[in-house]
Specification:
Elements: E1 3-8, H1 14-27, E2 32-37, H2 41-47, H3 53-62, E3 64-67, H4 81-88, E4 93-99, E5 112-118, E6 128-132, E7 135-138, H5 144-160, E8 165-170, H6 178-190, E9 197-202, H7 203-212, E10 219-222, H8 224-237, E11 247-249, E12 254-257, H9 275-287, H10 291-306, H11 320-329, E13 362-372, E14 383-384, E15 387-394, E16 397-399, E17 412-419, H12 425-435, E18 440-450
Parallel strand pairs: 1-2, 1-3, 3-12, 5-10, 8-9, 8-10
Antiparallel strand pairs: 4-5, 4-11, 6-7, 11-12, 13-17, 13-18, 14-15, 15-16, 15-17
Helix pairs in contact: 1-9, 1-11, 5-6, 7-8, 9-10, 10-11
The structure holds 1,4-dihydronicotinamide adenine dinucleotide.
1,4-dihydronicotinamide adenine dinucleotide binds next to loops.
């Protein structure tokens, strides 16, 4: 019995390091049949697209892929292939273990963390707009279903792996709505896992604690952007990017890849370290239930490192090929009676049904208008229908447009209009028709209030 897996070799060092996995798996008789597919810059040059439909089809068919790094142009050009694949298959959890390796000297030698990062939302939703020629804005999207999915996955992973503690890392003191929602989802899911210790910590403190006493953490769950940054910090704790693996997991699909990129500075030189992609392949084998083969590869890798055979980034002088050959020579034989294949089905997250503002008793009580103005806006109408002008702010700070400015002001403002009673759609349309001739608006935001509760105001969150 063999399992078919999509293999994307990628750009830069991608072909060199994925070849290492292919050779180790072949030598170890590991029952994986590779189906090659293409993505990345080289693919763009060859096939006219960085992510062909045939590649997505292959992942759809096989449900599991191993992906080499792909090059993403910075600032311009095509969007990240990784982000596109994560979105195409709703790979909501990015799982990045950080475990000390023998023979890889670092400040700590007993780090054993698993970082689970939300993988679709946050600023990575990619909803960005120019507001004026000087101001770019990114929408930080955190949803309840998206947060619940990844948090449930993190808890389930912790349970299945017999871990002791799950920590939510956030910035809910400042991002009261977005990180506040993520933290609320964490506390909700935690109740279903009473055997696990849980706590939460602010992202800034978490970074400090990680470098001072990493043993404080076990499984960590973070929103996307924080997770991206902190996972590189964790990679640094165990020896750097060359040894940091990762898996992108969704309901029914999984794509495994190293944390590092295509390393154009060393591409083609035959010196890249294949450890991270090999550990990603080990993670993939565990995901597929091929635990025995996963352990064989990891044992061979660890033994090779302990014996002092290392690539240059780890202080050795082995080439990628020499390192690969050493791993192959260290592969333990397969136990004839080892269980092959999944012993339990991959965990499926039950996605909640989306709720509507109406079903939750939310009422429209106002509007935030964002607009361009060369001067502080002094002529906005104080009252339009039932809506009264309550605040004008600049970069989130309330201002008095009639007072001499006390600080530097951007030429982009927010005006908040609120009504005493809930507004109808007709009221809103009439308001917008009346107000828009007075300003050059860029964004119009509806403000909700839950019946009987105060309006949450970001104007007070400075
Ligand atoms: P990078 O991770 O490619 O390289 C950073 C540094 O680490 C370089 O000095 C490189 O030589 C070294 N390095 C990385 N992997 C190594 C390995 N296996 N063995 C030895 N040394 C290694 O990051 P960089 O330079 O910022 O990005 C290069 C390209 O990769 C960019 O186009 C970026 O968008 C892309 N990228 C792709 C990722 C992916 O496909 N998963 C992830 C991160 C970046």
């Amino acid at each position: 019995m063999s399992y078919r897996v999509t293999l994307i070799r990628g750009d830069g060092i991608g072909p060199e390091i994925t070849e290492s996995v292919v050779e180790v798996f072949a030598a170890g008789d590991i029952p994986i049949e590779w189906e090659e597919a293409h993505a990345g810059l080289a693919c763009l040059e060859k096939f006219g697209t960085p992510l062909p439909e045939a590649t997505l089809e292959s992942i759809r068919r096989n449900r599991v892929a191993l992906k080499g790094p792909t090059t993403t142009p910075i600032g311009t050009g095509h969007r990240s292939i990784n982000v596109a694949i994560r979105k195409a298959f709703d790979l909501f959890a990015n799982v990045r273990p950080a475990r000390s390796l023998p023979g890889v000297p670092t400040r700590y030698n007993d780090v054993d963390l698993i970082l689970v990062r939300e993988n679709i939302e946050d600023t990575y939703a990619g909803v960005e707009h120019w507001q004026t020629p000087d101001i770019a804005q990114s929408l930080r999207l955190i949803s309840r279903p998206g947060s619940l999915a990844v948090i449930q996955y993190a808890f389930e992973l912790a349970r299945r792996l017999g871990r002791r503690k799950v920590t939510c890392v956030h910035k809910a003191n400042i991002h009261k709505a977005t990180d506040g929602l993520f933290l609320a989802c964490f506390r909700e899911v935690a109740q279903q896992y009473p055997e696990l210790e849980t706590d939460d910590i602010l992202i800034d403190n978490a970074c400090m604690q990680l470098v001072v006493r990493p043993e404080r953490f076990d499984v960590m769950i973070l929103p996307n952007l924080f997770g991206d940054i902190v996972s590189d910090l964790c990679a640094g704790l165990v020896g750097g990017l060359g040894v940091a693996p990762g898996g992108n997991i969704g309901n029914g699909y999984a794509v495994f890849e190293a944390v590092h990129g295509s390393a154009p500075d060393i591409a083609g030189k035959g010196i890249a370290n294949p450890t991270a992609i090999l550990l990603s392949a080990v993670q993939m084998l565990h995901h597929m239930g091929l635990h025995h083969d996963a352990e064989r590869v990891e044992t061979a890798l660890r033994y090779t490192l302990v014996s002092g055979i290392k690539t240059r980034d780890l202080g050795g002088n082995a080439s990628t090929r020499e390192f690969t050959k050493a791993i192959i020579s260290n592969l333990p034989p397969r136990a004839p009676d080892a269980a092959q294949g999944a012993t339990e089905p991959p965990y499926q997250v039950a996605m909640p049904t989306p709720r509507s503002p109406e079903s939750e008793g939310w009422q429209t009580v106002g509007v935030d208008l964002f607009f361009h103005s060369p001067e502080p806006p002094r002529n906005l109408p104080a009252q339009v229908g039932a809506l009264r002008l309550r605040a004008i702010s600049n970069r989130g700070v309330p201002i008095d447009p009639h007072a001499p400015p006390e600080r530097y002001l951007l030429n982009w403002y927010r005006a908040r209009y609120l009504a005493e009673a809930p507004l109808s759609e007709g009221d809103l349309q009439a308001f917008l028709q009346a107000i828009t001739p007075h300003l050059q608006w860029t964004t119009i935001q509806r403000l909700y209030q839950k019946e009987g509760q105060p309006l949450y105001s970001e104007l007070q969150a400075e």
